[in-house]
Each structure stands twice: as structure tokens, then as C-alpha cells.
Design a protein that fits this description.
Number of helices of chain C: 9
Strand order of the largest sheet of chain B: 1-4
Distance between the termini of chain C: 50 Å
Helix content of chain C: 25-40%
CATH architecture of chain B: 2-Layer Sandwich
Order of helices and strands of chain B: EHEEHE
Structural class of chain B: alpha+beta
CATH class of chain B: Alpha Beta
Structural class of chain C: alpha/beta
Number of helices of chain B: 2
Number of domains of chain B: 1
CATH architecture of chain C: 3-Layer(aba) Sandwich
Shape of chain C: globular
Number of strands of chain C: 8
Number of strands of chain B: 4
CATH topology of chain B: Alpha-Beta Plaits
Shape of chain B: globular
Strand order of the largest sheet of chain C: 3-2-4-5-7-6-8
Largest sheet of chain B: 2 strands, antiparallel
Strand content of chain B: 25-35%
Chains: A alpha/beta (355), B alpha+beta (73), C alpha/beta (249)
CATH superfamily of chain C: Thiamin diphosphate (ThDP)-binding fold, Pyr/PP domains
Radius of gyration of chain C: 17 Å
Oligomer: heterotrimer
Number of domains of chain C: 1
């Protein structure tokens, strides 16, 4: 299979086109600007829509409009811009509209920094907008994973009539790796969009796209229907890698760029005779709770490593249910740890649990 | 001889009286004896013979209550 | 031999309007519906229901409707029109939605020359939420958040939307109208027809600002409210064509 060397953001943009993106609405923000730049050139080339909106708020609402009209649509942004989109995401979920949102995460809070970070975990998985809703969120760690996910993202979004978020960090967006763009994507059976306000319908055939249900019983009914959908996602869409876990003493839980650094840390610890496995969530939501029933009884503890001060940590605590001792390692601000630092943290943890 | 005939969808009337105000021949009034399901006073035509079918009542009605028809020669 | 002079437009559904008695929303809804009917575009139309009293307009126009977040109607409309250019896309917005929270989205849609029809209901107050001050509230006008009257030094002057939009090159048609009596109403209808005709002809962004009433929150009868438009609003918000045709064409 042919491989080409690409920059992360451009690979994301290219694979979006391959995934069937028909429209992009977005606003510049570091470190993801290559995505709108690439699409501004190549989407019109294939007769599709590109608009640089006046803000992230305008962007997500343009996405809402295009999704309501029944087209495959996406946006991209970075952490502070995603914060602005939270209202729009709530509306998209409430109105059951499919779309793909790429978040190239950077340091926060507030303006923060432009270096890589994973401190959006809360805003991705805990809403951030109002209401009971969920976003299917993926956190690939390298460009091949990212490209494959981007191509599938529009299928998944259409299948569930829900936003899908691809969360990478600034490192992944900016780095260059070789990727194959030709890999097959799993196609789902997607019903016709007979709910879309695409024009041409009157009387009983009229389509109304809305998240407003003023009658409390109707709103509850609507919410319960959404909850049912989310239950299906939890049952069917958890994706993770649990490697090196057989008879492991410790497991490190990490995703994205942190997972890559952890892989090296695990090698360092292996050389020191300590068997450490990796649990790498690929879906941030639904969180891979299933993996926790597969953890070996030999486990002495779980170390959670994030580029944050402990956000995914909460989900690990929930899934762990007090079974194993937990520890946390985090670097923030855009500082990337060396594998040695993580190995050291695990050794310290090992000493603590042996007491 | 009336030039116009009016039909009313009384259940949609909210008794706002815009039609009463803008009728140039002043033949409309709120019927204080009747109320519709929502509790609004309906409209009555107090002198149907003097309807000139101008359509102003229907034009100004926010609720499309009135249908105006021109009759005769 | 009976000939129909006036009847309910086919552009409206059977749903009874939920607006207050005598509220001009009802009148403007009719004009929009009639425009869709007369131009034969009901089947092509996609309307955006904004937030305010008009949020329920998705029940009243007999075409596909999309409900938008507060202020974002013109962004939503952009998303729809760019994706479905053959559709006739219109937004129907009040003073909060278009001139306050949504002014950025509205100006930028106009600036990009999005081929849209925007109907702007200016009743100098926030209706749905109970009568708070709007960007268009007049100096001295009392509202629930300007209980002592709008004050130039505290609140600034009321925003003249048509005047502002007429400055934007790709806003090709900007007109302010009123519906306070049959003569002005017929003129308003002509303007709204034109705003839709422009979209059919792909001319660019068209905005019709309709001076409207809010009898309940103004504390007046519907008839007195129409008089208030004539006597108090029109002197500040002149009814006229601000722009008709593109600059630098």
C-alpha cells in the first residue's frame, strides 16, 4: 500500500475529503490552521463547500445549518475555540445532527498556550454545553490512526445522528509521519436522511429540525430517546488497546501523544525487569470500561498518565471501582515529559504500594 | 347592496380589534355577547350591507381570521 | 358570482398562531407566507426559526424549518444555503436575535453577500422574555431593565440596523418598512416580495426591517401600539429604501 509523508493537520484534512466531507466551516486558531488552509484549496477543487467563518461560534452554527440540510459537514478548532463551540455542540446533539469536529488540543485554561495538551478531556466527555448529551470522541495517537478514524468519522456520525469528535493534540497536528490514505473504511448501513430540512417538503411531509420541546413530557421523552442511543454507543463503540497486560505488575493508562511516550517508558521498565502493560483508550467517550474487566489479577496498581492535572483520572477511578491502587502522573502547559520521568514515577508508585 | 361578504374563523380570533379599527365603513365590532374557546370576544358584522370588499380587515388581521369575497355586479 | 379578495395564505400551516392578540408578528408572518406563495417558492423554502417570540415560527410556515441558537440564525442560514444553493433560505429574527447577540453573525453574512432573505422584526423591546430593553429601545422608553427609561449616557443610542447594513457592499437590498396601517402594510409586502425575488435571482444579501409592535410589553392596546409605531418609532426609524442594488457592480 502506497505511503506518503504528511503533516498531521494536512493528513486530517485530506482524509476528511476521502471520508466524504461535503462542507467545512471553521476559524483559524493555532495549532490547527493547516486544516482550514488545506481545505480552502482542496474542497472547492472537488466542488465542495469551504467557508472561513467569522468566529468559532459562527462556525459551529454553520455546521448545524449544513447538518440540518442533510450534508456531511465538519469543523476543526483547538481548545479555546472548542470551548466557544459548546453551545453549538449541545444544539447539534439535541437536534440529533451528524457532524465531525476535530479538536487539536492546546494548553489552557483561558488563552493558555499553543503547545500540546490533553486538558480538554472534561470539556469533551463531560459536555461543557447544557443538557444530557454525549459526543462520540476518539483520541488517536499517530497519523495512521488519525487518518483511518477521520475517514470513518462521517459514517459513524451519520449512523448515530450525533457529533463525532476527533481529539488530537498540537504535536500530532504538527508532526510529519508516513501514512497510507488507501485503507478501507468500515461502511455502516445508514438510513436515508428523511429528517433533513433540505427543502421541498410541505404539509405533513415538512421537516422541522429543532432541539426545542416546550412540553416537559415531550422533552423527557426526547431525552430518554437520546439516552437509549448513547447506551448503544456504550455497548458497541468502546475502542481500546490493552497490551503487555498478561501477568503485568502495573498498567499505565494513557492516550494520544502521552500513550506514545508511555510505550517508551514501558520499554525502560521492561529492561529493569518490571512488567508493565498499557491501556490505551482510543475512544474517550464511550470510555473503555470493558477493558477493566480484563485486567490481570496480578496487578499491583494502575498509573494514569496525562498531559493534564488529572481529567481522565476520574474515569479510571470510576471504572476501577476501588479494586487497585491508583497513582497519577501529569505534565501541563505544553511540557512533554521524557519517558524516563514516567518510568521514575512508576518506580516511586511501586515503592509506595510495596510498603 | 353589499359589495362584499365576510367569513370568519372565529376560533382563531383573539379579539385584538385591528379589523374594527381599520374598516373604513365601520361595520365591524367586538361581539360582547359571545366568546370563543380561548375566551376572546369574536367579531360581528353590524351592517353587512355596507361592506365594500376593500379587504382592509383581513389585511390587518394578524391571525388570518377573515376571508373577504367580492359579490354581485 | 363570488371573487376572493383576501384569504389565508397557503404559505401558512393550519396551526393557530401563538402570538399575543394584535401582535404584528402575525401580520408579518402573513406577508412572508404570501411572498412564498406568490413567487411559487413554498416548496423550495427553508426557514430559520430564531429565538424570541418567533421561535415557534417553525409551526407556522408551511416549509422545512430549522430552529437556531439565539443570534446564530444567519450563520445557520449560511450553512444551509452554501450546502443547498437551490433552496430559498430565509431567517426571521427579532431585535435581540439580530441586533444584539447575533449582530456579528448577521453583519458577516451580509458582508460575505450570502444569498439570503432576512426579515428583521424591530419592536424596540425583548418580547418573549418579558419586556427587557433591546438595542432598538428608544431613548426614554421604559422597559423592565431600563425602568427609568433608556438613557443616552448609560445605554447609548438605539441601533439603526438598516442604516448600518446599507453600508455593507454585498448587502444589496436594505429597506425599512412598517405594518401599522393598510397603506404601509402593502408597501411592506412589496419589500418582502422583493427580498425573496432577489434571492431567486442570486443577487446577494437582502434585509427588510419591519417596525413592529409588542402590545403586551409596551403596556398598550394593539391599536394604541400601532399608533405608537407611527408617532414614536417612525420619526427615529425612517421608513425608506436604504439600498437597492449592489455598489461597484
Amino acid at each position: 500500500m502506497k505511503k506518503i509523508l504528511m503533516k498531521g493537520n494536512e493528513a486530517i484534512a485530506r482524509s476528511a475529503i476521502l471520508g466524504g466531507c461535503e462542507a467545512f466551516f471553521g476559524y483559524p486558531i493555532t495549532p490547527q490552521n493547516e486544516i482550514p488552509e488545506y481545505l480552502s484549496k482542496y474542497l472547492p477543487e472537488v466542488g465542495k463547500v469551504f467557508v472561513q467563518a467569522e468566529s468559532e461560534i459562527a462556525s459551529i452554527n454553520m455546521v448545524y445549518g449544513a447538518a440540518a440540510a442533510g450534508v456531511r459537514v465538519m469543523t476543526s478548532s483547538s481548545s479555546p475555540g472548542i470551548a466557544l463551540m459548546q453551545e453549538g455542540i449541545s444544539y447539534l446533539c439535541g437536534a440529533e445532527l451528524p457532524c465531525v469536529i476535530v479538536n487539536v488540543m492546546r494548553g489552557g485554561p483561558g488563552l493558555g498556550g499553543i503547545q500540546p495538551s490533553q486538558s480538554d478531556y472534561f470539556q469533551i466527555t463531560r459536555g461543557g454545553g447544557n443538557g444530557d448529551y454525549r459526543v462520540l470522541a476518539y483520541a488517536p495517537e499517530n497519523l495512521q490512526e488519525t487518518v483511518d478514524l477521520m475517514k470513518e468519522a462521517f459514517e459513524i456520525a451519520d449512523y448515530y445522528r450525533n457529533p463525532v469528535m476527533i481529539a488530537v493534540d498540537g504535536l500530532i497536528g504538527q508532526m510529519m509521519e508516513s501514512v497510507s490514505l488507501d485503507r478501507e473504511v468500515k461502511k455502516r448501513v445508514i438510513p436515508e436522511k428523511n429528517w433533513a430540512a433540505s427543502g421541498g417538503h410541505t404539509g405533513k411531509e415538512r421537516r422541522i429540525v429543532t432541539s426545542l420541546f416546550l412540553d416537559p413530557e415531550k422533552l423527557e421523552e426526547h431525552n430518554l430517546r437520546l439516552a437509549k442511543k448513547y447506551k448503544v454507543m456504550i455497548a458497541d463503540e468502546q475502542k481500546y488497546e490493552l497490551s503487555n497486560a498478561e501477568e503485568a505488575e502495573f498498567i499505565i493508562v494513557a492516550y494520544g501523544t502521552m500513550a506514545r511516550i508511555v510505550r517508551s517508558a514501558i520499554e525502560i521498565l521492561k529492561d529493569q525487569g518490571i512488567k508493565v502493560g498499557l491501556l490505551k483508550p482510543l475512544t474517550l467517550w464511550p470510555y473503555p470500561k470493558n477493558a477493566f474487566s480484563k485486567l490481570p489479577k496480578s496487578l499491583k496498581g494502575i498509573l494514569v498518565a496525562e498531559l493534564s492535572l488529572g481529567q481522565m483520572l476520574d474515569d479510571v477511578k470510576i471504572c476501577n471501582e476501588g479494586r487497585f491502587p491508583l497513582s497519577f502522573f501529569g505534565r501541563v502547559g505544553g511540557v512533554l515529559p521524557e519517558p524516563e520521568e514516567i518510568a521514575e514515577a512508576l518506580l516511586k508508585f511501586k515503592m509506595e504500594v510495596s510498603r | 347592496m353589499a359589495r362584499g361578504v365576510l367569513e370568519f374563523k372565529h376560533e382563531d380570533c383573539k379579539g385584538c380589534s385591528l379589523c374594527v379599527e381599520f374598516c373604513p365603513t365601520k361595520i365591524l365590532a367586538l361581539d360582547k355577547e359571545k366568546i370563543n374557546q380561548k375566551g376572546y370576544h369574536q367579531i360581528k358584522v353590524i351592517d353587512p350591507e355596507r361592506c365594500i370588499a376593500c379587504g382592509f380587515c383581513a389585511l390587518m388581521c394578524p391571525d388570518s381570521v377573515i376571508t373577504v369575497m367580492r359579490v354581485g355586479a | 358570482m363570488k371573487q376572493i379578495v383576501y384569504q389565508k395564505s397557503k404559505g401558512l400551516t393550519d396551526h393557530q398562531l401563538s402570538y399575543c392578540p394584535g401582535c404584528t408578528h402575525g401580520i408579518v408572518h402573513k406577508l412572508v407566507a404570501e411572498a412564498l406563495e406568490e413567487l411559487n417558492i413554498i416548496e423550495k423554502a427553508i426557514g430559520i426559526a430564531s429565538v424570541g417570540c418567533s421561535v415557534l415560527s417553525y409551526n407556522f410556515f408551511d416549509c422545512d424549518m430549522v430552529q437556531a441558537a439565539h443570534g446564530r440564525a444567519c450563520a445557520v442560514a449560511t450553512g444551509i444555503k452554501r450546502s443547498r444553493p437551490e433552496a430559498i433560505v430565509f431567517s426571521y429574527q427579532g431585535d435581540g436575535d439580530l441586533a444584539s447577540i447575533g449582530i456579528g453573525e448577521t453583519i458577516h453574512a451580509a458582508n460575505r453577500g450570502e444569498n439570503l432573505t432576512v426579515i428583521f422584526i424591530n419592536n424596540a423591546i425583548y418580547g418573549m422574555t418579558g419586556g427587557q430593553m433591546a438595542p432598538t429601545t428608544l431613548i426614554g422608553q421604559k422597559t423592565t431593565t431600563s425602568p427609568f427609561g433608556r438613557d443616552l449616557h448609560l445605554h447609548g443610542m438605539p441601533i439603526k440596523v438598516s442604516e448600518i447594513f446599507s453600508q455593507i457592499p454585498r448587502a444589496v437590498y436594505v429597506e425599512r418598512v412598517s405594518v401599522h396601517n393598510p397603506r404601509f402594510l402593502k408597501n411592506a409586502k412589496r419589500a418582502i416580495l422583493k427580498a425573496f425575488q432577489n434571492q431567486i435571482e442570486n443577487k446577494g444579501f437582502s434585509l427588510v426591517e419591519v417596525l413592529s409592535t409588542c402590545p403586551v410589553n409596551w403596556g398598550m392596546t394593539p391599536i394604541k401600539a400601532l399608533k405608537w409605531v407611527e408617532e414614536e418609532m417612525i420619526p427615529y426609524y425612517p421608513v425608506k429604501v436604504f439600498k437597492d442594488g449592489e455598489e461597484n457592480e
